[in-house]
Specification:
Strand content: 35-45%
Distance between the termini: 97 Å
Number of strands: 11
Helix content: 10-25%
Largest sheet: 7 strands, mixed
Length: about 190
């Protein structure tokens, strides 16, 4: 009986994973509608930076949060855009830990990753991914990190049905002030006599 349940669990897990992948592929082929209002009808993604100010070549860590409201999330195809930053790394958080497509950079300032839930859809809020960026040399003013509104979220609704289109709601942005470090000019010391 124990081996029966192990086999059944494995088959069920593979089915959930394959269904999530199929939905993610279908979603990536559809044109997405941008959402502009917070709603419990969608899955919201947010950004939280470990600092609000940085200098050139300094690293900033950002947590990408997810709030699925009433959905169970099976996969997220995440794209991040930045200005005045270079991407250092993008790694899964504790929410969706199965990497379906590894992080790939698009020109040094943008990056994408696709994460899946594995055998059990994720529920409740959590940390989807962790992003590390570095302020570009010579940058000043502000730098931004934005979750691209074309990112895709697949999931299961409250009736247990797979949702046939992306359920992405609000997307986040972090603005970091880039400052010029203070380097006082040393004063000349009097000459020895």
């Amino acid at each position: 009986v124990s081996s029966y349940f192990k086999t059944l669990s494995a088959v069920l897990g593979v089915f959930v994973l394959v269904a999530g992948l199929g939905i993610a592929v279908k979603l990536s082929q559809q044109k997405q509608e941008t959402r502009t209002k917070a709603s419990v009808d969608m899955v919201d993604l947010s950004l939280s930076a470990d600092k609000i100010e940085a200098v050139a070549l300094e690293e900033v860590n950002l947590a990408i949060g997810v709030n699925p409201h009433n959905y169970k999330v099976t996969a997220v195809e995440l794209t991040i855009n930045t200005t005045n930053f270079d991407i250092v790394s993008l790694t899964p958080g504790n929410y969706l830990t199965t990497i379906l497509q590894p992080a790939g950079s698009e020109g040094g300032s943008d990056i994408h990753i696709t994460l899946g839930s594995g055998t059990t859809p994720a529920t409740g809020p959590g940390i989807l991914a962790n992003l590390k960026v570095k302020v570009k040399a010579g940058a000043s003013g502000t730098g931004t990190v934005t979750i691209n509104s074309g990112s895709l979220v697949s999931g299961i609704d409250t009736n247990g049905e797979a949702v046939p289109s992306s359920i992405l709601g609000d997307t986040g942005e972090s603005v970091i002030n880039i400052t010029i470090p203070y380097n006082p000019v040393p004063s000349a010391s009097p000459a020895a006599t």
